[in-house]
Amino acid sequence: SDRLKGKRAFVTAGAVGIGRACALAFAREGATVFATDIDDKGVALLTKDGIAETARLDVRDTAAVEAMAKKVGDIDILLNAAGFVHHGAALECSDSDWDFSFDLNVKSMHRTIRAFLPGMLARGNGAIVNISSAAGVFKAAPNRYVYGATKAAVAALTRAVAVDYITKGIRCNAICPGTIETPSMLDRAAAAGPNGRELFVSRQPMGRLGTAEEIASLAVYLASDESAFTTGVAHIIDGGWTL
Ligand code: NAD
Which family does it belong to (predicted)? Predict the structure, then answer.
């Protein structure tokens, strides 16, 4: 329970789902965790579970991200979880749908990385973990046109950061989950009809959905020094979806 002892971690979209599970797992492993979300009330609930500090942060707001990084100061771990699933094919994706998805799913990570990387470089130490997706990177999923494009961009951005700062003590990895039971995933299932959940389960060969905690276990590994020889990799964790 001290795999992240002495480390400071910053998490986006920490109120629910994968971001929340990562924040809690980091804290359980001894990190001092700063968790943020636009759902500031939701994220504030985490303080009773060992999260040191919480705050409202809209990752679409460059000035807010920069101000937050100044306020938080040095961190060892940056976990980028914010993301949105647009449902639809190319013809259902308007320019504004495209721009919103790229802004929230990709440029958000560009913002937090630019804000926190200088501090990591100054101390020669940093682990960045970006939540991508199996969809878009390892598999084409129906009606995930712009979503898949954003998640492939996250994988590419991850490799770019990894290669550019590899000699400076910075590691940058991506996690590519399959279907994970989270609030927005359950909303998507409900929107697919009365048997929506079964539909989502049926695309997972293990016959079940993944849990946010299972994603958090991989995030702890990638955030810790145990993975010191690993950088620039899109780590798939998909219950066999892509088999
Ligand atoms: P979710 O979609 O249920 O919740 C998203 C969270 O992001 C909410 O707390 C919301 O308030 C927050 N958020 C939205 N806009 C924000 C903004 N502008 N700034 C800050 N926070 C904002 O969570 P989830 O399903 O765990 O998804 C988390 C990440 O995991 C996303 O990047 C998603 O694409 C990725 N992912 C999820 C699955 C899945 O099956 N659930 C699979 C693969 C990848």
Answer: Belongs to the short-chain dehydrogenases/reductases (SDR) family.
